TrEMBL record:
Organism: Eleusine coracana subsp. coracana
PROSITE patterns (UniProt xref): TIR
Keyword Coiled coil: no
One Gene Ontology term from the biological process aspect of the record: signal transduction
Identification of the protein by name: TIR domain-containing protein
Chain segments carrying region Disordered: 1-32
InterPro entries in the record: TIR_dom, Toll_tir_struct_dom_sf
Amino acid sequence: MASVTRSIASSQQLEQLDTPVMPGNNKERKPRRRVVDYDEDDFFFAGDGRRRPAKYDVFINHRGLDTKRTVARLLYDRLDELSIRSFLDNQSMRPGDHLEHSIFGAVRDCSVAVAIFSKHYCDSDYCLRELAMLVDERKAIIPVFYDIEPADLVLPQELIDSKEYTPRDIERFRFALREARRTAGIGLTYDFTAGDMAELVSATANAVMERIQEMQQTAQQQQHMIISRL
């Protein structure tokens, strides 16, 4: 029944979507200003403000339309249980936080990223920008192919033809997707037809733990080497 598999033994234009609501706040909200090429489900809208001075271990890159209320949230909760500080926009941002400062600050701060690739992922400007920044920052990226194949990670022609993006933007997006496809061998896959969501979340959380532990061990070894030379 192996619906969640690993290839090695070790280890957002806007739609008419509901405006996200902060947990515990059931008051009716006024419609917020929409932003071109951003999907409301891909991030949590907040007013202008300074970025939270938080440090995150993990950044969860995902397409909200496909996964925010399923695997992305379940993974966030599981990592929280393991005392791993992860960034998921609608859970990690507060009213008053600046949208781009918060998200891109978390990208810069994280040690590891989980990129959840799904059916509508490449339609999202914001997903692609986050992924490109993660690649630029040389972050360790754990890919999850959520009912898609690595070969499906291609830019839509509408985005390529759009005047919203410069040639450099397009090349950065393409390069980031190529890098994601190259990591398919160490990724996780999930099939809707026979999928086990709990298994997917558990396997992804374990992969995150392993990567963080490896990075900590490497840092300790480097520190010991420096001390031994003093």
